[in-house]
Amino acid sequence: MILAAKNISLSYESTIIVPELSIFIESGEIVTFIGPNGSGKSTILKALARYLKARSGVVYLNGQDIQSMSTKKVAQQLAILPQTPQAPADLTVVELVSRGRTPHLNWWQRSGANDYEVVRWALEQTKTTHLADRLVGTLSGGERQRAWIAMALAQSPQVLLLDEPTTYLDICHQLEVMELISRLNRELGLTVVMVLHDINQAARYSHRLIALKNGTIIKQGPPQEILTEELLTEVFKVKAQVKTDSASGCPVCLPYGIVE
Amino acid sequence: MRNNSVSTFVGPKRRRQWITLMALAAMAILAITASISIGPVSIPFLKVWELLAKPPVQSDIASQIVWNIRLPRTLVGCLVGAGLALSGALLQGVMRNPLADPHIIGVSSGAGFAAVTAMIVIPNFPPSLVPAAAFVGAMASGVLVYALAWRAGVSPMRMILSGVAVSALMNAGTSAVLNIFSENVQSVMSWLAGGLAGRGWHHWHQLWPYILVAGTIALLTGRQVNVLLLGDEMATGLGMRVERVRMLLIGLACILAAAAVSVSGLIGFVGLIVPHIIRLIAGSDYRFLLPASALGGATLLVLADIAARMVLDPIELPVGILTACLGAPFFLYLLRRRTTH
User: Would you list the domain boundaries of chain A?
Assistant: First the structure.
Protein backbone atom coordinates (compact mmCIF):
# COMPACT_ATOMS: atom_id res chain seq x y z
CA MET A 1 0.00 0.00 0.00
CA ILE A 2 1.64 3.17 -1.16
CA LEU A 3 -1.03 5.72 -0.28
CA ALA A 4 -3.85 5.36 2.20
CA ALA A 5 -6.46 7.51 3.87
CA LYS A 6 -7.88 6.16 7.11
CA ASN A 7 -11.18 7.55 8.41
CA ILE A 8 -10.51 11.04 7.08
CA SER A 9 -13.10 13.75 7.38
CA LEU A 10 -12.67 16.85 5.22
CA SER A 11 -14.19 20.32 5.28
CA TYR A 12 -13.73 23.86 4.01
CA GLU A 13 -14.16 26.19 6.97
CA SER A 14 -17.27 24.72 8.61
CA THR A 15 -18.80 23.09 5.51
CA ILE A 16 -18.21 19.35 5.71
CA ILE A 17 -17.44 17.89 2.29
CA VAL A 18 -16.40 14.39 3.27
CA PRO A 19 -17.90 13.04 6.52
CA GLU A 20 -15.70 9.95 6.83
CA LEU A 21 -13.84 7.95 4.27
CA SER A 22 -11.05 5.42 3.88
CA ILE A 23 -9.10 4.73 0.69
CA PHE A 24 -6.23 2.33 0.06
CA ILE A 25 -4.06 2.65 -3.04
CA GLU A 26 -1.66 -0.12 -4.05
CA SER A 27 1.65 0.58 -5.73
CA GLY A 28 1.39 0.49 -9.53
CA GLU A 29 -2.38 1.06 -9.66
CA ILE A 30 -4.32 3.58 -11.70
CA VAL A 31 -7.24 4.65 -9.55
CA THR A 32 -9.86 7.13 -10.74
CA PHE A 33 -12.49 9.01 -8.77
CA ILE A 34 -15.77 9.52 -10.58
CA GLY A 35 -18.84 11.31 -9.30
CA PRO A 36 -21.05 14.35 -9.89
CA ASN A 37 -19.97 17.95 -9.23
CA GLY A 38 -19.66 18.59 -5.53
CA SER A 39 -19.17 14.92 -4.66
CA GLY A 40 -15.79 15.68 -3.08
CA LYS A 41 -13.47 14.19 -5.74
CA SER A 42 -11.07 17.11 -5.95
CA THR A 43 -11.26 17.68 -2.20
CA ILE A 44 -10.14 14.12 -1.53
CA LEU A 45 -7.30 14.52 -4.04
CA LYS A 46 -6.17 17.68 -2.21
CA ALA A 47 -6.17 15.78 1.08
CA LEU A 48 -4.13 12.95 -0.44
CA ALA A 49 -1.67 15.61 -1.62
CA ARG A 50 -1.51 17.08 1.95
CA TYR A 51 -2.72 20.45 0.57
CA LEU A 52 -5.89 20.16 2.63
CA LYS A 53 -5.49 18.98 6.20
CA ALA A 54 -8.05 16.44 7.38
CA ARG A 55 -10.24 17.43 10.36
CA SER A 56 -9.76 13.93 11.65
CA GLY A 57 -8.15 10.77 10.37
CA VAL A 58 -4.76 10.30 8.77
CA VAL A 59 -3.33 10.09 5.26
CA TYR A 60 -0.38 7.70 4.99
CA LEU A 61 2.29 7.82 2.29
CA ASN A 62 4.42 4.67 2.33
CA GLY A 63 3.21 4.03 5.83
CA GLN A 64 4.04 7.45 7.26
CA ASP A 65 1.58 10.14 8.36
CA ILE A 66 1.78 12.63 5.50
CA GLN A 67 1.19 15.65 7.76
CA SER A 68 4.07 14.70 10.06
CA MET A 69 6.53 14.14 7.20
CA SER A 70 8.59 17.07 5.96
CA THR A 71 6.70 18.51 3.01
CA LYS A 72 9.87 18.26 0.95
CA LYS A 73 10.18 14.52 1.62
CA VAL A 74 6.58 14.11 0.50
CA ALA A 75 7.31 16.06 -2.69
CA GLN A 76 10.12 13.63 -3.52
CA GLN A 77 7.62 10.75 -3.51
CA LEU A 78 4.36 12.31 -4.60
CA ALA A 79 3.52 14.88 -7.30
CA ILE A 80 0.22 16.64 -7.92
CA LEU A 81 -1.06 18.43 -10.97
CA PRO A 82 -3.89 20.82 -10.02
CA GLN A 83 -6.81 21.45 -12.31
CA THR A 84 -5.70 24.83 -13.60
CA PRO A 85 -2.03 25.37 -12.83
CA GLN A 86 -0.65 28.84 -13.56
CA ALA A 87 2.69 29.94 -14.96
CA PRO A 88 4.31 33.33 -15.67
CA ALA A 89 3.80 34.38 -19.31
CA ASP A 90 7.48 34.22 -20.21
CA LEU A 91 8.26 30.82 -18.71
CA THR A 92 9.66 28.27 -21.18
CA VAL A 93 8.88 24.57 -21.06
CA VAL A 94 12.38 23.59 -19.97
CA GLU A 95 12.31 26.19 -17.19
CA LEU A 96 8.94 24.88 -16.06
CA VAL A 97 10.11 21.27 -16.05
CA SER A 98 13.25 22.30 -14.14
CA ARG A 99 11.00 23.64 -11.38
CA GLY A 100 10.08 20.00 -10.77
CA ARG A 101 13.56 19.49 -9.30
CA THR A 102 12.78 21.92 -6.45
CA PRO A 103 12.16 19.25 -3.77
CA HIS A 104 15.54 17.67 -4.54
CA LEU A 105 17.50 20.89 -4.01
CA ASN A 106 18.27 22.83 -0.88
CA TRP A 107 17.73 26.57 -1.11
CA TRP A 108 21.40 27.34 -1.59
CA GLN A 109 21.94 24.60 -4.20
CA ARG A 110 21.97 25.14 -7.94
CA SER A 111 20.76 22.50 -10.37
CA GLY A 112 23.53 20.01 -11.11
CA ALA A 113 24.26 17.64 -14.00
CA ASN A 114 21.99 15.01 -12.48
CA ASP A 115 19.06 17.45 -12.35
CA TYR A 116 19.52 18.38 -16.01
CA GLU A 117 19.62 14.69 -16.83
CA VAL A 118 16.30 14.09 -15.06
CA VAL A 119 14.75 17.12 -16.79
CA ARG A 120 15.87 15.82 -20.17
CA TRP A 121 14.48 12.40 -19.34
CA ALA A 122 11.14 13.91 -18.28
CA LEU A 123 10.94 15.85 -21.56
CA GLU A 124 11.66 12.68 -23.51
CA GLN A 125 9.10 10.63 -21.61
CA THR A 126 6.37 13.15 -22.39
CA LYS A 127 7.57 13.78 -25.96
CA THR A 128 8.07 17.48 -25.27
CA THR A 129 11.81 17.70 -26.03
CA HIS A 130 11.11 19.64 -29.24
CA LEU A 131 9.01 22.13 -27.24
CA ALA A 132 11.73 22.76 -24.66
CA ASP A 133 12.37 26.44 -25.44
CA ARG A 134 8.79 27.34 -26.32
CA LEU A 135 6.82 29.55 -23.91
CA VAL A 136 4.33 27.55 -21.85
CA GLY A 137 1.67 30.16 -22.62
CA THR A 138 1.95 29.63 -26.39
CA LEU A 139 1.45 25.84 -26.31
CA SER A 140 -1.77 24.13 -27.36
CA GLY A 141 -3.85 22.62 -24.56
CA GLY A 142 -2.52 19.10 -25.10
CA GLU A 143 1.10 20.20 -25.32
CA ARG A 144 0.71 22.30 -22.19
CA GLN A 145 -0.74 19.40 -20.24
CA ARG A 146 2.19 17.22 -21.34
CA ALA A 147 4.63 19.91 -20.25
CA TRP A 148 3.03 20.03 -16.80
CA ILE A 149 3.14 16.24 -16.57
CA ALA A 150 6.85 16.48 -17.49
CA MET A 151 7.32 18.87 -14.59
CA ALA A 152 5.62 16.42 -12.25
CA LEU A 153 7.82 13.61 -13.61
CA ALA A 154 10.93 15.67 -12.94
CA GLN A 155 10.04 15.38 -9.26
CA SER A 156 10.82 11.64 -9.69
CA PRO A 157 7.65 10.69 -7.83
CA GLN A 158 6.25 7.24 -7.06
CA VAL A 159 2.71 8.58 -7.02
CA LEU A 160 1.15 11.08 -9.40
CA LEU A 161 -2.13 12.81 -8.53
CA LEU A 162 -4.04 14.44 -11.40
CA ASP A 163 -7.12 16.63 -11.09
CA GLU A 164 -9.14 16.39 -14.31
CA PRO A 165 -6.13 16.22 -16.63
CA THR A 166 -8.25 16.14 -19.82
CA THR A 167 -10.68 18.98 -19.13
CA TYR A 168 -10.62 21.70 -21.84
CA LEU A 169 -8.85 19.37 -24.31
CA ASP A 170 -10.22 18.20 -27.65
CA ILE A 171 -10.81 14.48 -28.01
CA CYS A 172 -7.51 13.69 -29.69
CA HIS A 173 -5.49 15.52 -27.05
CA GLN A 174 -7.58 13.88 -24.34
CA LEU A 175 -6.58 10.46 -25.64
CA GLU A 176 -2.98 11.56 -26.03
CA VAL A 177 -2.82 12.57 -22.35
CA MET A 178 -4.56 9.39 -21.21
CA GLU A 179 -2.25 7.21 -23.31
CA LEU A 180 0.74 9.04 -21.84
CA ILE A 181 -0.48 8.46 -18.29
CA SER A 182 -1.16 4.82 -19.06
CA ARG A 183 2.31 4.35 -20.57
CA LEU A 184 4.03 6.01 -17.59
CA ASN A 185 2.13 3.61 -15.35
CA ARG A 186 3.11 0.56 -17.41
CA GLU A 187 6.73 1.42 -18.10
CA LEU A 188 7.77 3.25 -14.95
CA GLY A 189 5.42 1.60 -12.48
CA LEU A 190 4.08 5.05 -11.59
CA THR A 191 1.05 4.91 -9.31
CA VAL A 192 -1.66 7.24 -10.61
CA VAL A 193 -4.64 8.62 -8.71
CA MET A 194 -6.88 10.97 -10.67
CA VAL A 195 -10.21 12.67 -10.99
CA LEU A 196 -12.00 12.35 -14.34
CA HIS A 197 -15.35 13.58 -15.60
CA ASP A 198 -15.44 11.31 -18.63
CA ILE A 199 -16.67 7.98 -17.31
CA ASN A 200 -15.73 6.08 -20.46
CA GLN A 201 -12.15 7.30 -20.32
CA ALA A 202 -12.04 6.43 -16.64
CA ALA A 203 -13.27 2.93 -17.43
CA ARG A 204 -10.85 2.53 -20.31
CA TYR A 205 -7.66 3.57 -18.51
CA SER A 206 -8.15 2.72 -14.81
CA HIS A 207 -7.52 -0.44 -12.88
CA ARG A 208 -10.03 0.66 -10.32
CA LEU A 209 -12.85 3.18 -10.15
CA ILE A 210 -14.11 4.82 -6.98
CA ALA A 211 -17.62 6.19 -7.39
CA LEU A 212 -18.41 9.05 -5.02
CA LYS A 213 -21.54 10.91 -4.02
CA ASN A 214 -21.81 13.52 -1.26
CA GLY A 215 -18.34 12.64 -0.02
CA THR A 216 -19.15 8.97 0.44
CA ILE A 217 -17.93 5.97 -1.55
CA ILE A 218 -20.92 4.35 -3.24
CA LYS A 219 -18.95 1.57 -4.89
CA GLN A 220 -15.39 0.78 -5.91
CA GLY A 221 -13.69 -1.89 -7.97
CA PRO A 222 -12.54 -2.76 -11.50
CA PRO A 223 -14.58 -0.92 -14.16
CA GLN A 224 -16.00 -4.16 -15.60
CA GLU A 225 -17.46 -5.08 -12.24
CA ILE A 226 -18.88 -1.86 -10.89
CA LEU A 227 -19.90 0.19 -13.91
CA THR A 228 -23.58 -0.73 -14.16
CA GLU A 229 -26.80 1.03 -15.12
CA GLU A 230 -27.87 1.01 -11.47
CA LEU A 231 -24.66 2.70 -10.36
CA LEU A 232 -25.02 5.47 -12.94
CA THR A 233 -28.59 6.04 -11.82
CA GLU A 234 -27.63 6.14 -8.18
CA VAL A 235 -24.51 8.30 -8.51
CA PHE A 236 -25.22 10.59 -11.45
CA LYS A 237 -29.03 10.42 -11.62
CA VAL A 238 -28.89 9.49 -15.30
CA LYS A 239 -30.47 6.70 -17.26
CA ALA A 240 -27.80 4.99 -19.32
CA GLN A 241 -27.05 1.84 -21.20
CA VAL A 242 -23.82 0.09 -20.33
CA LYS A 243 -22.24 -1.94 -23.14
CA THR A 244 -18.91 -3.56 -23.67
CA ASP A 245 -16.58 -1.97 -26.18
CA SER A 246 -15.48 -4.75 -28.51
CA ALA A 247 -12.16 -3.07 -29.32
CA SER A 248 -10.89 -2.73 -25.75
CA GLY A 249 -13.17 -5.02 -23.78
CA CYS A 250 -13.93 -2.11 -21.46
CA PRO A 251 -17.42 -1.08 -20.41
CA VAL A 252 -18.84 2.06 -22.04
CA CYS A 253 -21.89 3.96 -20.96
CA LEU A 254 -24.40 5.69 -23.21
CA PRO A 255 -26.60 8.06 -21.23
CA TYR A 256 -30.05 8.72 -22.68
CA GLY A 257 -32.04 10.45 -19.99
CA ILE A 258 -32.27 12.05 -16.58
CA VAL A 259 -33.86 10.44 -13.56
CA GLU A 260 -36.61 12.81 -12.36
CA MET B 1 25.45 14.97 -27.88
CA ARG B 2 26.39 18.26 -26.27
CA ASN B 3 23.75 20.13 -28.25
CA ASN B 4 20.95 18.16 -26.67
CA SER B 5 21.93 19.16 -23.18
CA VAL B 6 19.18 21.06 -21.45
CA SER B 7 21.47 23.80 -20.24
CA THR B 8 21.92 25.15 -23.77
CA PHE B 9 18.18 25.83 -23.99
CA VAL B 10 18.55 28.30 -21.15
CA GLY B 11 21.59 30.00 -22.70
CA PRO B 12 20.27 33.03 -24.62
CA LYS B 13 17.94 34.09 -21.82
CA ARG B 14 20.73 33.86 -19.25
CA ARG B 15 22.98 36.00 -21.45
CA ARG B 16 20.29 38.65 -21.82
CA GLN B 17 19.88 38.72 -18.05
CA TRP B 18 23.59 39.20 -17.42
CA ILE B 19 23.83 41.94 -20.03
CA THR B 20 20.87 43.72 -18.45
CA LEU B 21 22.47 43.50 -15.00
CA MET B 22 25.77 44.90 -16.32
CA ALA B 23 23.97 47.72 -18.13
CA LEU B 24 21.99 48.58 -15.01
CA ALA B 25 25.12 48.61 -12.88
CA ALA B 26 26.81 50.93 -15.37
CA MET B 27 23.76 53.22 -15.40
CA ALA B 28 23.72 53.29 -11.61
CA ILE B 29 27.36 54.37 -11.49
CA LEU B 30 26.74 57.04 -14.12
CA ALA B 31 23.67 58.33 -12.28
CA ILE B 32 25.57 58.48 -8.99
CA THR B 33 28.42 60.39 -10.62
CA ALA B 34 26.01 62.81 -12.29
CA SER B 35 24.14 63.33 -9.04
CA ILE B 36 27.37 64.28 -7.26
CA SER B 37 28.53 66.40 -10.16
CA ILE B 38 25.39 68.49 -10.72
CA GLY B 39 24.41 71.36 -8.42
CA PRO B 40 24.89 75.06 -7.75
CA VAL B 41 28.62 74.42 -7.74
CA SER B 42 29.23 72.23 -10.78
CA ILE B 43 31.97 69.63 -10.38
CA PRO B 44 33.22 67.78 -13.51
CA PHE B 45 32.75 63.98 -13.62
CA LEU B 46 36.45 63.17 -13.43
CA LYS B 47 36.96 65.62 -10.60
CA VAL B 48 34.18 63.83 -8.69
CA TRP B 49 36.06 60.55 -8.74
CA GLU B 50 39.34 62.27 -8.02
CA LEU B 51 37.82 63.80 -4.87
CA LEU B 52 36.17 60.51 -3.86
CA ALA B 53 39.45 58.64 -4.26
CA LYS B 54 40.97 60.45 -1.31
CA PRO B 55 39.58 61.34 2.13
CA PRO B 56 37.75 64.70 2.50
CA VAL B 57 40.03 67.75 2.50
CA GLN B 58 39.04 70.38 5.08
CA SER B 59 40.30 73.35 3.08
CA ASP B 60 38.82 72.33 -0.29
CA ILE B 61 35.21 73.55 -0.78
CA ALA B 62 34.56 71.08 -3.62
CA SER B 63 35.77 68.19 -1.49
CA GLN B 64 33.49 69.34 1.35
CA ILE B 65 30.47 69.57 -0.97
CA VAL B 66 31.11 66.14 -2.43
CA TRP B 67 31.78 64.36 0.85
CA ASN B 68 29.38 66.06 3.21
CA ILE B 69 26.42 67.00 1.03
CA ARG B 70 26.10 65.29 -2.33
CA LEU B 71 27.61 61.83 -1.64
CA PRO B 72 25.46 61.03 1.42
CA ARG B 73 22.33 62.38 -0.28
CA THR B 74 23.02 60.30 -3.38
CA LEU B 75 23.79 57.15 -1.41
CA VAL B 76 20.63 57.55 0.67
CA GLY B 77 18.75 57.90 -2.63
CA CYS B 78 20.31 54.65 -3.87
CA LEU B 79 19.26 52.73 -0.78
CA VAL B 80 15.75 54.19 -0.76
CA GLY B 81 15.26 53.40 -4.45
CA ALA B 82 16.70 49.91 -4.13
CA GLY B 83 14.64 49.18 -1.02
CA LEU B 84 11.37 50.33 -2.57
CA ALA B 85 11.96 48.49 -5.86
CA LEU B 86 12.97 45.25 -4.10
CA SER B 87 9.94 45.53 -1.86
CA GLY B 88 7.65 46.03 -4.86
CA ALA B 89 9.19 43.13 -6.78
CA LEU B 90 8.77 40.80 -3.79
CA LEU B 91 5.15 41.85 -3.26
CA GLN B 92 4.22 41.48 -6.93
CA GLY B 93 5.60 37.95 -6.76
CA VAL B 94 4.04 36.96 -3.45
CA MET B 95 0.65 38.42 -4.34
CA ARG B 96 0.91 37.18 -7.94
CA ASN B 97 -0.52 40.58 -8.78
CA PRO B 98 1.24 42.98 -11.14
CA LEU B 99 -0.27 46.00 -9.41
CA ALA B 100 1.11 45.23 -5.96
CA ASP B 101 3.63 47.63 -4.42
CA PRO B 102 4.65 48.82 -0.93
CA HIS B 103 1.46 50.91 -0.63
CA ILE B 104 -0.66 47.82 -0.91
CA ILE B 105 0.46 46.40 2.44
CA GLY B 106 -0.22 49.66 4.21
CA VAL B 107 3.45 50.49 4.77
CA SER B 108 3.42 53.97 3.26
CA SER B 109 0.16 55.12 4.82
CA GLY B 110 1.29 53.76 8.21
CA ALA B 111 4.59 55.62 7.94
CA GLY B 112 2.77 58.79 6.93
CA PHE B 113 0.27 58.64 9.76
CA ALA B 114 2.91 57.94 12.41
CA ALA B 115 5.27 60.63 11.14
CA VAL B 116 2.57 63.29 10.86
CA THR B 117 1.21 62.45 14.30
CA ALA B 118 4.69 62.63 15.81
CA MET B 119 5.61 65.89 14.10
CA ILE B 120 2.35 67.75 14.73
CA VAL B 121 0.56 66.29 17.70
CA ILE B 122 3.48 65.62 20.04
CA PRO B 123 4.96 68.97 21.18
CA ASN B 124 8.71 69.42 20.70
CA PHE B 125 9.12 66.09 18.95
CA PRO B 126 12.82 65.92 18.00
CA PRO B 127 13.07 65.94 14.16
CA SER B 128 15.88 63.37 14.30
CA LEU B 129 13.41 60.84 15.66
CA VAL B 130 10.86 61.26 12.83
CA PRO B 131 12.34 58.39 10.81
CA ALA B 132 12.09 56.11 13.84
CA ALA B 133 8.44 57.04 14.33
CA ALA B 134 7.73 56.51 10.63
CA PHE B 135 9.46 53.13 10.71
CA VAL B 136 7.42 51.99 13.70
CA GLY B 137 4.21 53.19 12.04
CA ALA B 138 5.06 51.46 8.78
CA MET B 139 5.88 48.13 10.42
CA ALA B 140 2.82 48.29 12.69
CA SER B 141 0.61 48.97 9.71
CA GLY B 142 2.14 46.08 7.72
CA VAL B 143 1.66 43.68 10.63
CA LEU B 144 -1.93 44.87 11.06
CA VAL B 145 -2.71 44.22 7.39
CA TYR B 146 -1.16 40.76 7.62
CA ALA B 147 -3.06 39.93 10.81
CA LEU B 148 -6.37 41.11 9.37
CA ALA B 149 -5.85 39.01 6.26
CA TRP B 150 -5.04 35.89 8.30
CA ARG B 151 -7.65 33.18 8.27
CA ALA B 152 -5.95 29.79 8.47
CA GLY B 153 -3.34 31.30 6.18
CA VAL B 154 -3.10 34.49 4.16
CA SER B 155 -4.51 34.53 0.66
CA PRO B 156 -3.04 37.21 -1.64
CA MET B 157 -6.47 38.60 -2.46
CA ARG B 158 -7.45 39.03 1.20
CA MET B 159 -4.08 40.61 1.88
CA ILE B 160 -4.62 43.18 -0.87
CA LEU B 161 -8.15 43.99 0.26
CA SER B 162 -7.19 44.39 3.90
CA GLY B 163 -4.23 46.50 2.75
CA VAL B 164 -6.56 48.82 0.88
CA ALA B 165 -8.82 49.10 3.92
CA VAL B 166 -6.02 49.78 6.40
CA SER B 167 -4.41 52.31 4.03
CA ALA B 168 -7.72 54.17 3.72
CA LEU B 169 -7.99 54.28 7.50
CA MET B 170 -4.41 55.51 7.98
CA ASN B 171 -4.83 58.17 5.28
CA ALA B 172 -8.04 59.32 6.91
CA GLY B 173 -6.13 59.59 10.19
CA THR B 174 -3.42 61.64 8.48
CA SER B 175 -5.98 63.99 6.93
CA ALA B 176 -7.74 64.38 10.26
CA VAL B 177 -4.51 65.32 12.04
CA LEU B 178 -3.60 67.76 9.25
CA ASN B 179 -7.00 69.45 9.48
CA ILE B 180 -7.21 69.63 13.24
CA PHE B 181 -3.68 71.00 13.61
CA SER B 182 -3.77 73.06 10.45
CA GLU B 183 -1.45 75.81 11.77
CA ASN B 184 1.82 73.82 11.53
CA VAL B 185 1.24 71.84 8.39
CA GLN B 186 4.04 73.36 6.28
CA SER B 187 6.94 71.17 7.39
CA VAL B 188 4.80 68.06 7.27
CA MET B 189 3.63 68.54 3.70
CA SER B 190 7.14 68.34 2.28
CA TRP B 191 7.79 65.18 4.28
CA LEU B 192 4.61 63.59 2.94
CA ALA B 193 5.56 64.44 -0.64
CA GLY B 194 8.84 62.63 -0.17
CA GLY B 195 12.31 63.82 -1.01
CA LEU B 196 16.01 63.65 -0.45
CA ALA B 197 16.61 67.33 0.35
CA GLY B 198 18.93 67.70 3.32
CA ARG B 199 19.47 63.96 3.70
CA GLY B 200 22.95 63.34 5.10
CA TRP B 201 25.21 60.79 6.72
CA HIS B 202 23.04 60.31 9.81
CA HIS B 203 20.18 59.17 7.53
CA TRP B 204 22.56 56.82 5.79
CA HIS B 205 23.56 55.33 9.14
CA GLN B 206 19.90 54.80 10.08
CA LEU B 207 19.13 53.17 6.76
CA TRP B 208 21.92 50.88 5.63
CA PRO B 209 21.68 48.12 8.26
CA TYR B 210 18.05 47.38 7.37
CA ILE B 211 18.59 47.49 3.62
CA LEU B 212 21.76 45.41 3.86
CA VAL B 213 20.25 42.62 5.98
CA ALA B 214 16.73 42.48 4.50
CA GLY B 215 18.05 43.14 0.99
CA THR B 216 20.64 40.37 1.15
CA ILE B 217 18.09 37.83 2.35
CA ALA B 218 15.62 39.06 -0.29
CA LEU B 219 18.17 38.53 -3.07
CA LEU B 220 18.53 34.89 -1.99
CA THR B 221 14.79 34.16 -2.27
CA GLY B 222 14.54 34.27 -6.07
CA ARG B 223 13.94 30.57 -6.54
CA GLN B 224 11.30 30.52 -3.80
CA VAL B 225 9.35 33.30 -5.52
CA ASN B 226 9.68 31.47 -8.83
CA VAL B 227 8.03 28.42 -7.30
CA LEU B 228 5.37 30.51 -5.60
CA LEU B 229 4.44 31.99 -9.00
CA LEU B 230 3.12 28.54 -10.02
CA GLY B 231 0.29 28.89 -7.49
CA ASP B 232 -0.13 27.84 -3.86
CA GLU B 233 -1.22 24.31 -4.65
CA MET B 234 1.65 23.65 -7.05
CA ALA B 235 4.16 25.23 -4.66
CA THR B 236 2.93 22.98 -1.86
CA GLY B 237 3.15 20.02 -4.22
CA LEU B 238 6.78 20.95 -4.89
CA GLY B 239 7.55 20.75 -1.19
CA MET B 240 7.38 24.42 -0.21
CA ARG B 241 5.95 25.52 3.13
CA VAL B 242 3.93 28.17 1.37
CA GLU B 243 2.56 30.03 4.38
CA ARG B 244 5.96 30.31 6.02
CA VAL B 245 7.73 31.46 2.86
CA ARG B 246 4.99 33.98 2.15
CA MET B 247 5.30 35.41 5.66
CA LEU B 248 9.08 35.71 5.27
CA LEU B 249 8.77 37.46 1.90
CA ILE B 250 6.07 39.87 3.07
CA GLY B 251 8.13 40.58 6.18
CA LEU B 252 11.20 41.39 4.09
CA ALA B 253 9.16 43.61 1.76
CA CYS B 254 7.70 45.38 4.77
CA ILE B 255 11.09 46.06 6.38
CA LEU B 256 12.65 47.27 3.12
CA ALA B 257 9.81 49.66 2.34
CA ALA B 258 9.44 50.85 5.94
CA ALA B 259 13.15 51.63 6.21
CA ALA B 260 13.09 53.45 2.87
CA VAL B 261 10.06 55.67 3.46
CA SER B 262 11.03 56.40 7.06
CA VAL B 263 14.07 58.28 5.76
CA SER B 264 12.76 59.70 2.51
CA GLY B 265 9.09 60.32 3.20
CA LEU B 266 6.42 58.96 0.91
CA ILE B 267 7.86 58.20 -2.50
CA GLY B 268 5.42 56.51 -4.83
CA PHE B 269 5.63 54.33 -7.91
CA VAL B 270 9.31 53.28 -7.66
CA GLY B 271 8.17 50.00 -6.15
CA LEU B 272 5.53 49.57 -8.81
CA ILE B 273 7.20 50.54 -12.06
CA VAL B 274 10.80 49.41 -11.67
CA PRO B 275 10.03 45.66 -11.47
CA HIS B 276 7.72 46.05 -14.47
CA ILE B 277 10.34 47.79 -16.58
CA ILE B 278 12.82 45.04 -15.75
CA ARG B 279 10.24 42.37 -16.58
CA LEU B 280 9.60 43.92 -19.97
CA ILE B 281 13.30 44.01 -20.75
CA ALA B 282 14.47 40.62 -19.55
CA GLY B 283 11.70 38.48 -18.14
CA SER B 284 10.21 37.47 -14.82
CA ASP B 285 12.77 34.98 -13.49
CA TYR B 286 13.05 36.24 -9.91
CA ARG B 287 16.62 35.07 -9.45
CA PHE B 288 17.42 37.86 -11.89
CA LEU B 289 14.47 40.20 -11.37
CA LEU B 290 15.34 40.90 -7.73
CA PRO B 291 18.93 42.14 -8.17
CA ALA B 292 17.99 43.95 -11.37
CA SER B 293 15.10 45.72 -9.62
CA ALA B 294 17.39 46.83 -6.81
CA LEU B 295 19.84 48.35 -9.30
CA GLY B 296 17.02 49.85 -11.38
CA GLY B 297 15.31 51.35 -8.32
CA ALA B 298 18.53 52.97 -7.14
CA THR B 299 19.16 54.40 -10.62
CA LEU B 300 15.63 55.74 -11.10
CA LEU B 301 15.51 57.45 -7.74
CA VAL B 302 18.91 59.10 -8.15
CA LEU B 303 17.90 60.32 -11.64
CA ALA B 304 14.56 61.59 -10.33
CA ASP B 305 16.43 63.42 -7.57
CA ILE B 306 18.71 65.09 -10.12
CA ALA B 307 15.61 66.21 -12.04
CA ALA B 308 13.96 67.38 -8.82
CA ARG B 309 16.92 69.67 -8.20
CA MET B 310 17.17 70.97 -11.77
CA VAL B 311 13.63 71.42 -13.11
CA LEU B 312 12.67 74.53 -11.14
CA ASP B 313 16.16 75.54 -10.00
CA PRO B 314 16.71 77.14 -7.50
CA ILE B 315 13.49 75.73 -6.01
CA GLU B 316 13.79 72.05 -5.22
CA LEU B 317 10.82 69.80 -5.94
CA PRO B 318 10.13 66.82 -3.68
CA VAL B 319 11.41 63.77 -5.54
CA GLY B 320 8.14 61.98 -4.81
CA ILE B 321 6.43 64.32 -7.26
CA LEU B 322 8.86 63.37 -10.03
CA THR B 323 8.67 59.62 -9.48
CA ALA B 324 4.87 59.96 -9.57
CA CYS B 325 5.07 62.03 -12.79
CA LEU B 326 7.15 59.26 -14.32
CA GLY B 327 5.14 56.52 -12.69
CA ALA B 328 1.52 57.50 -13.24
CA PRO B 329 1.64 57.51 -17.07
CA PHE B 330 3.49 54.20 -17.04
CA PHE B 331 0.94 52.80 -14.66
CA LEU B 332 -1.87 53.77 -17.05
CA TYR B 333 0.01 52.33 -20.00
CA LEU B 334 0.30 49.09 -18.07
CA LEU B 335 -3.39 49.02 -17.25
CA ARG B 336 -4.25 49.51 -20.92
CA ARG B 337 -1.90 46.76 -22.00
CA ARG B 338 -3.43 44.39 -19.47
CA THR B 339 -7.01 45.03 -20.54
CA THR B 340 -6.20 44.47 -24.20
CA HIS B 341 -4.90 40.96 -23.49
Answer: 3-258
